[in-house]
Specification:
The complex is a heterodimer of chains A (308) and B (267). Chain A is mostly helical. Chain A contains ten helices and five strands. Chain A has a two-stranded antiparallel sheet with strand order 1-2. The two termini of chain A are 29 Å apart. In chain A, 51% of the residues are buried. In chain B, the strands form three sheets. A six-stranded mixed sheet of chain B has the order 2-12-11-4-7-8. Chain B has a four-stranded antiparallel sheet with strand order 1-3-10-9, with no helix packed on it. Classes of the chains: A mainly alpha (308), B alpha+beta (267).
C-alpha cells in the first residue's frame, strides 16, 4: 500500500513507515527518549531526502516528547526556570544550526558531518552509558547502593560566574554551562533532527549535577520547544517538513510508545540503561562502518531542488 | 499469403541492409514530404495519494510517407518524455584518513529530472551517433554542460558517465527500444513511463521521425504533472504560508502526543 508524500515528492510504502514509527516509538517509550536519533537515519536509509528526514524527524520528536512532558508536569518534576535557561541557549543553537545546515548542504559535506556527529556522539555516549550501567549492575549484584549524585562534590562547572538559584532543582548554578549545553543541543536538533535527550540527560546529571528526578522532565520541556522551533524554521526557510510523513510516524510512534512504556516498567533502571547503551552503540557502529567501507558507488547525484 | 509477405519483407530488409544503406541515404535528401502528428489522451497527469508512477500511451501518425520505404521498415520513430529541467550535481567520494569523503563535484546545467525514451528499435541503429548527438536524443547523447570552472576538463567524461549511470539505475532515466509500434501503415503508438518519484511541473513529450537514418520531422507536446486534492493543498500551503504550515505541523504533533497521553492514561 503506497502513499504519496507531497513535500518529499515521492511514493512510499505506508506499512514500512508505520512499522518504522511503531518500532522507534516502542523503543522511545521503553527508554524514555525521543527517538530522533533512530528515526532520522532510518528515514534517510529509506531514501527520504535527508533535508526532509531531518525536518520531519524534529516534528515527530515534538509528538513523542509531549506525552512524557505532560506526565512529568503533573508530577511536578519539571524545573521551568532551569528549562527556560536551557531553552534560551537551545533557540540560539537551533538558529545557528539551521544556518550551518544550509551551508554544509551547499558545500556537499552535510552527509559526512551528520554521519561523523552521529558516530562520535552515539559512540561516546553509548560507551559511557554502557560502562556506567554495567558497573551499577555489578554493584547491585553485590548489594551496594549506587549514588548517581554525590552531594557536596563540585567540579569546575560550579566555579563559573553568573550564578542563579533554581528552586525546584535545589541548586545554585551558573547560567553559562546551562545555556551552553542548551546551545549545543539546539545545533544538534536542527542539524541532525534529534531531540538530543540522549546527550542532555547524562550531561545534566554528571556535568551539572542536577538532581535526577527533575532531569528527564526538564530536558523534555527543552526538547519540545527547541524541536517545535526547528520545525517552524525549517518549514519557513527550506519548506522541508512533510506533514503526511510526520503524521504517519507520529500516530505509529505514540501507539508504539505505550507498549514500550509497559515493557520498560518491567525492567530495572540499570538494565534499561545497558540496553539503551547497546542500541545507541549499535546505531553508531552501523554508521561508522558505512564511513569506512568502500561505498557501493563513489559517485552520487543530487538535483538542485532536494538532497545535498 | 501473410507468411509470404513477411518472408518477402525479411528478404528485402536483408538485401537492403548493408550495401544499399549508404547509397539510399544520399538519394533524395532534404525533400521530405512526411509529416508527423502526435496526440495524448490527456495534457495533465494528476498525482494522487496512491500515485505509483504512470504509463502513458502516445498515439501518432505519419503522413505523406513513401509506402516502399515503409514496407522496408525504413521509418523509425523515437518518442521521449522529458521531465522538468534542473541543475544536478555529481559528487565523487575519495578515501581521506580512512573515511570516505566527497572530494570533488561537478554541476550540470539544466538536465531533465526524468527521461523516458521509447523507440521502434535501438536508437543507436536508427541514425548515426553524430546525428543523435546533435539532436540530444537518448541518455547517452543528452547535453551535459558543466556549470562554472571545471579545470582542464579531463574528468568531464567520468562525471558524465557517472551521472548517466546513476540516473538510469535509479529508474528516472529509462529506455525501451521496442516501445514504439506501428499499429497500421501510418499509425503508431508509443508507451513511455512516468516514474513513481516523478518531479512535478511541465514535462514534454517529443516525437522524432527518422527516414533511413536521416532526421525528418519532430513534434512536441507539453504534459503537466500536478498534485491534486490534499497533496496540492499541502504543497501550496507549505510554500505560500510556510510559517502557518510549520505552526500547524507543530500543533498536529502536540495534539497527537496529548491525545495519546489522554487515551492511554491509566490513572
Amino acid at each position: 500500500m503506497s502513499i504519496y508524500l507531497p513535500i518529499a515528492e515521492l511514493s512510499v510504502n505506508i506499512l514500512i513507515i508505520l512499522g518504522m514509527g511503531a518500532a522507534v516509538g516502542f523503543l522511545s517509550g521503553m527508554f524514555g527518549v525521543g527517538g530522533g536519533f533512530l528515526i532520522t537515519p532510518l528515514l534517510i536509509f529509506y531514501n527520504i531526502p535527508p533535508v526532509v528526514a531531518v525536518a520531519t524527524g524534529a516534528n515527530q520528536v515534538v509528538a513523542s516528547s509531549i506525552s512524557g512532558a505532560i506526565t512529568h508536569f503533573r508530577r511536578g518534576t519539571i524545573d521551568i526556570k532551569l528549562g527556560t535557561v536551557l531553552l534560551c541557549g537551545g533557540l540560539a543553537g537551533a538558529t545557528v544550526g539551521v544556518w550551518l545546515f544550509s551551508l554544509l548542504r551547499r558545500v556537499g559535506q552535510l552527509d559526512l558531518v551528520i554521519s561523523l556527529l552521529y558516530v562520535v556522539l552515539l559512540g561516546s555516549v553509548g560507551s559511557l552509558m554502557l560502562w556506567e550501567s554495567v558497573r551499577a549492575m555489578r554493584k547491585a549484584a553485590n548489594n551496594q547502593a549506587t549514588p548517581l549524585r554525590r552531594p557536596g562534590q563540585h567540579n569546575w562547572v560550579h566555579r563559573l560566574p553568573l550564578k542563579m538559584r533554581f528552586k525546584k532543582s535545589k541548586i545554585y548554578l551558573s547560567v553559562i554551562p546551562v545555556a551552553t549545553l542548551g546551545f549545543c543541543i539546539g545545533i544538534l536538533t536542527s542539524v541532525m533532527g534529534v531531540g538530543g535527550g540522549f546527550i542532555m540527560v547524562p550531561a545534566m546529571i554528571y556535568l551539572l549535577r542536577i538532581p535526577t528526578n527533575v532531569v528527564v522532565g526538564t530536558s523534555l520541556f527543552q526538547i519540545i520547544f527547541v524541536s517545535a522551533y526547528t520545525v517552524i524554521v525549517q518549514a519557513s526557510t527550506n519548506y522541508t517538513v512533510d506533514i503526511v510523513l510526520a503524521f504517519v510516524l507520529m500516530i505509529a510512534g505514540v501507539i508504539g510508545a505505550q507498549y514500550g512504556v509497559r515493557v520498560g516498567q518491567k525492567l530495572r533502571g540499570e538494565q534499561l540503561r545497558a540496553l539503551l547503551a547497546l542500541l545507541v552503540l549499535a546505531v553508531g557502529i552501523r554508521l561508522a562502518i558505512e564511513l569506512v567501507i568502500p561505498p557501493k558507488d563513489i559517485y552520487s547525484v543530487v538535483s538542485a531542488g532536494f538532497g545535498f | 499469403m501473410r507468411r509470404l509477405a513477411h518472408m518477402a519483407l525479411a528478404a528485402l530488409t536483408l538485401a537492403f541492409a548493408a550495401p544499399a544503406f549508404a547509397q539510399l541515404q544520399d538519394e533524395n535528401a532534404n525533400d521530405f514530404t512526411e509529416k508527423l502528428e502526435i496526440g495524448i489522451s490527456t495534457d495533465e497527469i494528476a498525482i494522487t495519494s496512491d500515485f505509483r508512477g504512470a504509463d502513458l500511451t502516445i498515439f501518432g501518425a505519419v503522413d505523406g510517407f513513401d509506402p516502399n520505404l515503409l514496407a522496408q521498415g525504413k521509418y523509425n520513430i523515437i518518442v521521449s518524455l522529458e521531465g522538468p529541467k534542473d541543475n544536478a550535481t555529481v559528487r565523487k567520494k575519495e578515501r581521506v584518513f580512512g573515511i570516505w569523503v566527497n572530494t570533488s563535484s561537478m554541476t550540470f546545467e539544466l538536465v531533465p529530472e526524468s527521461y523516458s525514451l521509447s523507440s521502434t528499435r535501438d536508437i543507436e541503429t536508427i541514425a548515426p551517433p553524430g546525428e543523435m548527438g546533435n539532436m540530444g536524443i537518448g541518455v547517452d547523447h543528452m547535453r551535459l554542460v558543466p556549470l562554472g570552472f571545471v579545470g582542464d576538463g579531463s574528468n568531464l567524461g567520468e562525471f558524465r558517465n557517472a551521472f548517466r549511470r546513476i540516473r538510469e539505475t535509479s529508474g528516472v532515466y529509462e529506455r525501451d527500444p521496442g516501445g514504439v509500434q506501428f499499429i497500421s501503415s501510418s499509425l503508431f503508438k508509443a508507451s513511455v513511463r512516468l516514474p513513481a518519484n516523478v518531479p512535478n511541473g511541465v514535462h514534454v513529450v517529443r516525437a522524432y521521425l527518422f527516414r533511413d537514418g536521416t532526421f525528418v520531422a519532430a513534434k512536441a507536446l507539453p504534459l503537466r504533472v500536478v498534485k491534486t486534492g490534499v497533496e496540492q493543498v499541502i504543497t501550496q500551503t507549505a510554500h505560500e504560508q510556510p510559517f502557518l504550515y510549520g505552526l500547524f505541523a507543530v500543533l498536529l504533533a502536540v495534539i497527537t502526543g496529548w491525545g495519546a497521553s489522554l487515551l492511554f492514561r491509566k490513572d
